[in-house]
Amino acid sequence: MHAIEQLQPFFEQQAPRLIALSDRIWSLAELRYAEQESARLHAEGLDEAGFRVQQALAGIPTAFAAEYGEGGPVIALLGEYDALSGLNQESGALQCRPSVDSPGLNGHGCGHHLLGAAAHLAALAVQQHLRARGLPGRIRFYGCPAEEGGSGKTFMARAGAFDDLAAALTWHPASHSGVFDQSTLANIQASFRFHGRAAHAANAPHLGRSALDAVELMNVGVNYLREHMPPDARVHYAITDSGGLSPNVVQARAEVLYLIRAARNHEAAELYERVQNVARGAALMTGCELEVRFDKACSNLLLNGTLNQVLYEEMRRLGPLPVGEGERTQASRHHATLSENDVAEASRSLGSALRGQVPALFDGVSDYDPARTGLLYGSTDVADVSWITPTAQCWMACYAFGTPFHSWQMVSQGKSALAHVGMVQAAKALAATAIRLFEQPQLLDAARQELNQRRGGKPYVCPIPPEVPLPLRRG
Ligand SMILES: [Zn+2]
Questions:
Q1: Which of 13, 198, 207, 218 could form a Cys-Cys staple with 252, CB 3.0–4.6 A?
Q2: What's the CA-to-centroid distance between 146 and ligand 1, angstroms?
Q3: What pLDDT, in 10s, does the model give residues 344-357?
Q4: 3-class DSSP string for the chain
Q5: Class of domain 186-297
């Protein structure tokens, strides 16, 4: 009998507790590096189950590791639990309706409450298997904070937190299911603060030096840069300090936050240097001083075909999502709130997997073709783990087909029956894959060889320089 079939009663017994945990974390909706309660709930659950918990991993109060087992290889399950700012939303609503129950204005618009809960459930299932079979091997859950805008795992990677792993597995809630088979963009985030001189804007403007002008000139300069960047690169900015609310004062200070992305780490670093040159030019033009603060960065993702194939086989073995009429009806209602463009975008990225049909609920597993390599125009800090140890991820349908990431619809569906079914299915896929890797260690050797090849003999170099402090304060 396959290990997951044997573990079926275990999943039935444990799933309600983990579903309740994901619902609780949905309601907490804690932001980057402030996930105290969410991290505590995960760590406590694993501690009670007999895992050895190491708190404040890499000096980050909301990061931890929890390990079970002795000897053998260490296989990691990466869990996240951070929310997004500004996405607070009433659960289940079919329209954008910010809720008053949730503290602050945050919401789980990327499903990380489910992500952490499934990885946690998978860790418990692997523990159960190792214990029942008396097998050597260690399963380690990583509590990873601040995936959104904080690069929590990259800071953990810089501190060496993933150095002794044989493999790492994780997943991401989505509106379809399949292996995560695209690379992602490397990025660098930095703030540019200009210091000028205040003056009466009418009476003595010639004595003032406007920091706000410097921000505006920098943005204009970067907009001209866009035509001359690699086509896959992306540059975004937000003005985080415009220098005050008084137009009759020459703004003595102003700040802009830049997020610079490119297909590979060295391209992101080169583009960052060019953006800094534009900022230096803006400072020179306006007579301001420039202060650049490197905030965070992450690498481009290295796919691992060996692990992806195992994950795919286990997803196929599990079969379609065990959904009923209730989940289908609910998904249809939410699907009806999506725009044609949202659905078209999701359909395009799946290609032939849909076979001409656009479902309200995608309950299958999309085909995996190792030869197909694409680029997802986004970034993830899982990428830094993927440079250190062979890493695989999957998507699992938890939302109506076409539900876009970081939308109110994703928050609204975060506690739905479908979200719960997808979460438990993801836990089974991760557990089944980890169990296969423990039982067939030659797969781990092949995956490691593949990683060495993909790195081209180069060691991992963390894109966050050693002197950059942990960005724990900014909310
Ligand atoms: Zn996410």
A1: 198
A2: 10
A3: 888 887 766 676 67
A4: CCHHHHCHHHHHHHHHHHHHHHHHHHHHCCCCCCCHHHHHHHHHHHHHCCCEEECCHHHCCCCEEEEEEECCCEEEEEEECCCEECCCCCCCCCCCCCCCCCCCCEECCCCHHHHHHHHHHHHHHHHHHHHHHCCCEEEEEEEECCHHHHCHHHHHHHCCCCCCCCEEEEEEEECCCEECCEEECEEEEEEEEEECECCECCCCHHHCECHHHHHHHHHHHHHHHHHHCCCCCEEEEEEEECCCCCCCECCCEEEEEEEEEECCHHHHHHHHHHHHHHHHHHHHHHCCEEEEEEEEEECCCCCCHHHHHHHHHHHHHHCCCCCCHHHHHHHHHHHCCCCHHHHHHHHHHHHHHHCCCCCCCCCCCCCCCCCCCEEECCCCCHHHHHHHCCEEEEEEECCCCCCCCCCHHHHHCCCCHHHHHHHHHHHHHHHHHHHHHHHCHHHHHHHHHHHHHHHCCCCCCCCCCCCCCCCCCCC
A5: alpha beta
